[in-house]
Amino acid sequence: MARDSALYVCQSCGSVHGKWSGQCSSCGQWNTLTEESRSAPPGAIKPSAAASARGRGLQFETLQSDTPEPPRITTGVAEFDRVCGGGVVPGSAILLSGDPGVGKSTLLLEVAAKAALRGGRIAYISGEEAVEQIRARAKRMGLDQAPVNLAAATALRDILGTLKREQFDIVIVDSIQTLWSDVHESGPGSITQVRACAGEMVRLAKTQGIAVVLVGHVTKDGQVAGPRVVEHLVDAVMTFEGERGYPFRILRAGKNRFGATDEIGVFEMGDSGLREVANPSALFLGEGKDRAPGAAVFAGIEGSRPVLVEIQALVAPSAYGTPRRAVVGWDSGRLAMLLAVLEARCGLGFGDKDVYLNVAGGLRINEPAADLAAAAALISSALDMPLPQGCVVFGEIGLSGEVRSVGRAEARLREAQKLGFDHLLCPPLPQSAGKTNGVKVTSATRLTDVVERISQNRY
């Protein structure tokens, strides 16, 4: 029997090539093409019957429906439920990714155990660890009494057959790269296997009404390993991230069909597992009583919750011909723009100075409202003038040097009040912000006003 002609599939982007080459012409990655057999997907129409086969007619529906939405499954892990949009939706598929060792398995084991203790039927299927390893982790976390159904398996046919016979509320598969289907000849973790196994698990979730959580590995660039089509198949894509050397972990939703994509869940990693952080502001703020020059507290918004975080800046004379710009936790392009505005509009020169900017605690900030806080930290460090201890800063800066208003000002004000801050440096507050309740508000419309107030210590 003649062998089917082989194809070469890129393991980075999933593009198909007719012959091997050292570099993928689609994504530009080197040494990512692997040989895979040409096989038809399950359920495909054979070429001989395709010409005479007729598709069935479609029956269209309207937008109105009398069927109520199914109730969400509350797992008992409030931060996880928050990111999901208020709980896990039955019949949904969730892809969870993260760096190796960040705590994905620990998080999902806690979700499975607490959901099972609340009466849900939970299945935890691991393709990377043995059952005894999972039991040891559950005992260390104090969750060994939870009625979770454990299994260690990688064969997709066996997993699907079991899940179709028994009814579960949530099924966790750790990880999708370890599953393999006997329909395809390629090995586990290949593009063909990942695409096929993910498609079958999503199909099972939709037909059986089971919420499926798939764990996905990430590449060196931080992207989900495997083709991008896997992210399009699922209903939600979540990322579990954390900086090395910091105990906290952040759960983000990059895609969510049943909730917001800007929500975050904050956890703290300890000896007995993950602990939910109900007040992230206390985690990201410094503990010192006296504020040094170059530090400013920023009132940001992450999803629906306000978060206070300290932005630190250091401006020092450059020892080399080319000044250095180092940024941690913020956009480097935004810093370059801010330095240009300070030099062109305010007369502060940074051409012969090294500039270092850091977001304390390792948090990543993408909000334009952090412009004024970063500028205040840079001005404070350059002039060696500290900001008041109880001062909170937020606002967006334009290229002309104006300080622009930002949204959710009342939420930022309430968070500052709750944590005992008594001073606010920001653009003029809208009337909807309400009473300041003892918080002194210093309004600034131009960046030059901020430089003047910091230099003269006048707030």
From TrEMBL:
Keywords recorded for this protein, A-Z: ATP-binding, DNA damage, DNA repair, DNA-binding, Hydrolase, Metal-binding, Nucleotide-binding, Stress response, Zinc, Zinc-finger
Q: Give the UniProt record's GO annotations in the biological process aspect.
A: recombinational repair
Where are the annotated segments for Lon-protease-like?
354-459
- GO MF: ATP binding; ATP-dependent DNA damage sensor activity; damaged DNA binding; hydrolase activity; zinc ion binding
Q: Which residues form the RecA family profile domain?
A: 69-218
Q: Which family does it belong to?
A: Belongs to the RecA family. RadA subfamily.
Per its record, how is this protein called by name?
Answer: DNA repair protein RadA
Q: Which organism is it from?
A: Brevundimonas aurantiaca
Give the gene symbol.
radA
